[in-house]
Write a structure and sequence with these properties.
Layout: E1 2-3, H1 8-12, E2 15-17, E3 25-27, E4 32-36, H2 46-60, E5 63-66, H3 73-84, E6 91-95, H4 101-105, H5 112-118, E7 148-155, H6 156-162, H7 173-185, E8 189-191, H8 200-208, H9 227-241, H10 254-262, E9 266-272, H11 275-282, H12 295-299, E10 301-304, E11 317-321, E12 324-328, H13 330-333, H14 339-349, H15 352-358, H16 379-388, E13 393-395, H17 414-418, H18 424-439
Parallel strand pairs: 4-5, 4-6, 8-9, 11-13
Antiparallel strand pairs: 1-5, 2-3, 6-12, 7-9, 7-10, 7-11
Helix pairs in contact: 8-9, 9-18
Length: 440
């Protein structure tokens, strides 16, 4: 927990609230907000968030108890449990898919529509068409800061040593598997991945590659129509059998395989746009100080497209979009002392200037997104922007709608699938059976 005490001058001054342009509001007393986000760890926006948080505190005299943590399944479970125990924060930056269903259904967060009824300028700079809506009632609850994409990062030092060309937007699955064979022959791990820890990205794209209709990728099909799922799991198994993953892929952690990639021992890393910051951090003598960046070390990294396997999907068709945002909880909304501050905090953190920082190398949710200032970016951020300009489409992640225990047979059970202890068909069928039971 982080608690920052502001100076006596700020504490005694009137707190200025920028809830609406041209109509400033003031608060006589400082307010303390409990905030939880995923801007932590290797998230490339962790530093931007901390700077924004400090700026809001200094501008308003309010304070924030920040409990931000790296996003993983444990974090998601903790957030949901906090809502169930009436221990939810005042403001939450969280997912908008099935993970949020329980607290949306319970009425524990406030819709953007309801907030705008009292604060018309709330998120007024956003393109409403890009604001994700809840699966529960079709209403928008979370204000996004930036979009995301999932793509393949590349260690060019490894590729060059193996005589493998940098993949482009026409990369095919056959080319990819041939490249992996060449990389393995030279003694490197072709793909940095911990299948026993975080198989998420390969799970997602392998299913995506086998879809007959990309528009239906994020939909949960009937169990008897899950051919793409079974084919996807079998595809990961084929990669494992071909030696595409590190030898310890079933026992290693994601952090360990990430180090293989950054230490020139693996060629490819399938991950999200947030990993740009993690890679840059690995090239700094002080991970928390960008001024210590070794630019030559970072220059060897690039980002490219995930190979396609059929005629439906192009390699430049990516998993991505807007899947997270700031929620204001009913607890804060119903508290006269916190209501204004919560609205003000979200407006501050999603202002045009802040969004420009958060979305610099990913998609922007703004109505009118200003051009990013590349002069203040590192080489990988600039490469990510150039890469993004070639993307032909974004499709929401399937796993966001297939949550909880139903994912265990194919997520936690991935080692059993790739080693043949459990068939892909049986693992998928088990997951669908759990999903059907939970939906009753």
């Amino acid at each position: 927990m982080r608690k920052k005490m502001v100076s006596a001058l700020l504490c005694t001054a009137m707190t200025v609230s920028m809830v609406s342009a041209g109509a400033l509001m003031v608060h006589a007393d400082s307010v303390e907000l409990n905030v939880v986000t995923t801007f932590a760890g290797e998230d490339s926006n962790a530093k931007n968030y901390q700077e924004g948080l400090k700026g809001w505190e200094e501008a308003t005299g309010n304070t924030v108890n920040d409990n931000s943590a790296t996003s993983d399944e444990t974090f998601k479970t903790t957030v949901v449990s906090d809502f169930e125990m009436d221990a939810e924060p005042d403001v939450l930056f969280f997912f908008t898919g099935a993970d949020a269903n329980s607290f949306v259904e319970a009425g524990k967060v406030v819709s953007i529509e309801d907030i705008r009824a009292e604060y018309p300028e709330y998120a007024s700079n956003m393109d409403d068409a890009k604001i994700p809506v809840s699966m529960v009632d079709g209403k928008a609850y979370a204000v996004p800061t930036n979009g995301y994409w999932e793509a393949m990062f590349v260690n060019k030092t490894v590729l060059d040593d193996c005589g493998v060309q940098m993949p482009d937007e026409n990369y095919t699955w056959d080319q990819f598997m041939a490249d992996c064979a060449a990389i393995k022959e030279k003694g490197y791990a072709p793909v940095a991945a911990a299948l026993g820890n975080i198989p998420h990205y390969w799970w997602e794209y392998s299913i995506f590659n086998n879809q007959a209709d990309l528009a239906k990728h994020a939909e949960i099909p009937a169990a008897e129509e899950a051919d793409a799922w079974v084919a996807g799991m079998e595809e990961v198994k084929a990669m494992y059998e071909a030696g595409c993953f590190p030898e310890n892929t079933l026992s290693a952690t994601d952090d360990e395989t990430f180090q293989l990639f950054t230490q020139d021992k693996a060629a490819f890393l399938l991950d999200g746009s947030w990993k740009v910051g993690g890679i840059a951090g690995a090239c700094q003598s002080d991970p928390d100080d960008p001024s210590t960046l070794d630019t030559e070390a970072l220059d060897k990294f690039d980002v490219t497209f995930v190979p396609s396997k059929n005629d439906v999907r192009k390699a430049s068709d990516l998993i991505g979009g807007f899947s997270m945002g700031y929620y204001i909880t009913a607890k804060a909304w119903e508290d006269p002392e916190k209501k204004d501050a919560a609205v003000d905090f979200v407006n501050y953190m999603t202002s045009d200037d802040m969004i420009l920082k958060f979305a610099q190398h990913s998609a922007s949710p703004l109505k009118e997104a200003p051009e990013a200032d590349t002069s203040v970016m590192n080489s990988l951020q600039i490469k990510a922007i150039d890469f993004g300009a070639k993307v032909t489409s974004y499709t929401p992640a399937l796993q966001d709608n297939f949550q909880g225990e139903c994912r265990v047979p194919t997520f936690d059970g991935m080692p059993n699938i790739v080693t043949g202890e459990v068939s892909a068909a049986d693992a998928v069928a088990e997951g669908f059976a759990i999903y059907a039971e939970s939906a009753e």
